[in-house]
Amino acid sequence: MPEAIVALGEAKRVVGRLRFESDGRRQHSQFEYSDEWLAAPDRFALSPGLPLREGGHFFSGKDDKRSALPGCFADAAPDSWGRGLMARALGGGLSEFDYLVLSDDRTRQGALRFLGDDMEPLSDLTPPIPRLVELERLRALAARFERDPGGAEEEARDLAGVAGSLGGARPKANVEGDGHLWIAKFTSAQDTRPVERVEVATLKLAARCGLRVAKAKLELANSDSPVALIKRFDRRGNTRIPYISAKTALDWESDEGGFYTDIADVIRQISSKPIDDLHEIWRRIVFTILVSNKDDHLKNHGFIYAGGDRWRLSPAFDINPSPSRHRVLETGIIQGGSFDASLDIALEACEFFDVKRESAKAQISEMAKIIAEGWRQALRDQGSSADEVRVYADAFEHDEAARALRIVG
Ligand SMILES: Nc1ncnc2c1ncn2[C@@H]1O[C@H](COP(=O)(O)OP(=O)(O)O)[C@@H](O)[C@H]1O
Ligand SMILES: [Mg+2]
Description:
The chain is an alpha+beta fold.
């Protein structure tokens, strides 16, 4: 039965042991906290769904294979982009456990590490982490792999290591620059719009609206396939900071979308600054609606560990305006309610997030103004052409935005 010692951070603090079993069709795992961790003064639960107690926590993959691992471990395993690379580099037939432990330890999401009995990482893919100056080479590797995954085994080996355990579907890799780790998000061969220019522009716009946002900048900006660099918020120098997605924090098993009021409940339970985080997530709902972000699912929200068994909402990331008439959210605002991207619902829900109605109106109005006055220039600042800006008009100028501008704060 494959197993791993689960440890945290640079110091490899042992927190427990993960065992994995597959009978061909079904995959199961068992995690047990170590006695030392349970007795440690600075112990904390790796996620709310994995409370500190003696004995095994069992997980069994049902229809969705991914739930064969506890959520906090699934968060540290790759999604479709990283899996595609690993399968090509290492051969098919990888189990959930393989995807988790064989991906690169140095760039792994959060602070979890998966070690053998010799206390060394089980990772199998460990080329040197590329530096910023190698971005063009990396971009070429990603493009070749996207074009012909079957014929790009060598590219896959190089990239699978540096894509590490990062989730998501878009082509990406880790790079080191200015002594920090960054996520390089590549323009995809399938993109019909300047997705990465607009992602960087939108993150900057979000920061101007007062949101806490991952630092972002555009590289190779003068080319047809620019690269968004997003600074890793789960690293501080060499320190690794535990991370869980909102999906894990909610212990959300369903394939259906979750709800922001459930995130609010979790914030009340686990945040070290619940009021700040409640206000912040409410403002992110409003921003998401105003910029027609269609990517606000539960893995695009997360929490980073704040010490003392408390967490903070992570900086915002992966916000992608999408011009479309169909205005829906991936995460509904009020539990059990509609998925409409509606500011009326956001307003109706404000008290769940400890925001007073008058203040809510004022904030909506203020954000709407900043976006209305700033979005075109924000896109141009990242090198979007006049045509490209025009294509995005529907994402920023729509009925909800117009009504938001009429709300008097
Ligand atoms: N700045 C960041 N620091 C640390 N982890 C991040 C950061 N941005 C994204 N992530 C993690 O990487 C995953 C993939 O990144 P994301 O931008 O969502 O890519 P995609 O567009 O492919 O979904 C996220 O789900 C999150 O877990
Ligand atoms: Mg994402």
